[in-house]
Every structure is written in structure tokens, then in C-alpha cells.
Amino acid sequence: TQMKRYWEQTPSIRTTFPNVADFIRERRVYTDEDRTRNFNWEDKIYSNGNFTNTEVGVRHGTDKTKFYMGVGWFKENGALYDNGFDRKNIRFNIDHAISSKLHARINVSSIIDRTTRRNGLPELYMIQPFMYPYDNAGNMLDSLPVRQSSNYGPAYTTWTQNFLAETGYDNTRLTKVQNHLASISLRYNILPFLSVQTSNSL
Description:
The protein is mainly beta. It has four helices and eight strands, in the order ααααββββββββ. A six-stranded antiparallel sheet has the order 1-2-3-4-7-8, with no helix packed on it. The longest helix has 8 residues, at 2-9.
């Protein structure tokens, strides 16, 4: 193992720990009791995400006037716990021939986004399977001990929040974004191969 190679290559470590098994037991970040635990954090953090995407459009017109209207709704329930995305949009276009030379076009569109992100969601790679969210009596812990070691030095303990203890609270970040755009353009055909156009939008 890597710890064994480190012990073999470091004389000062061999002096302190003549037996490699003692060195590994002392400097590892888990205990013998931890080896009996295997909590499935992935099952708690992730779920079967799904999404729906619905789009409806209507197109119609005459020789002089053509129009299009479409609406859409995209909804995603993310695989990550309590994360989601919702987008609604509408679009309206109309083209009208005012005369044989003058044409007008109007475009209107709106997009409304709603994003939900769970605060305090841990990165899965930072959680070890032996980090158990309950105490010996079966009570949910508010925080979890995290044993760490720098370059196989003496192990030390820090603490991190227990994600599962917060699932009963509305600890989400909600972001709403709206984009609205309208434009109008006029085109005048000077010659069959030459035209001028002006556009304005807001």
C-alpha cells in the first residue's frame, strides 16, 4: 500500500514506528469500528432525476400577413437532492406586407427561469462511507467528525455539517430570471436586388 511504501522510504517514521502495522493503525483516518460501517450516502444525495419538455406552436398566414406563436415549458427535477430547473417561454412573430415594397416584422419573446439549489449539499467525494449520520442511540447528529491526515502525519479531527439533519428545513436557494425582448423592423425594397432595412428592439 501507499502508506507502507511511505514507511519504508522514511527513516524517521521507522524509528518512531518500528512496526509498519503500528504506523498504519496510528496514522490512518479510520478506526477498526469504522470498518464495520458502510452508509450509502450516494443513495441519500442522489435520486432518479427526470425532465419534461413541452412545446406547442401555431403558424398561419395569408399572402400579405403571416404569423407564428409558440409556447414552451421545460421542467427538470435534478438527480441531486432538492435541485430543480423550470423554464417557460413564449414567442410571437408577425410579418406584414404593407405594400409591394414596404414590409414590417414584429418579434416578441419572453423567457422565465426558476432555479432551485439546495444549500449545504456536500460533495460526495468528501464523504467516507464510515461517516455515519446517527449516534449509537440512533439519534440524528447535527454534525459529523471528519478525520484527516496531512502526508500521513498525526490524524486530526474536524467537523462538517450533517446534510441529512437539514433535509427537514427549507434550506434552498431560489433564483428567478426573466428575459423579455421585443423588436420591430421595416424593410423597403428599392429594386428587386436592393433594399434598405431598419430595426429597433427593447
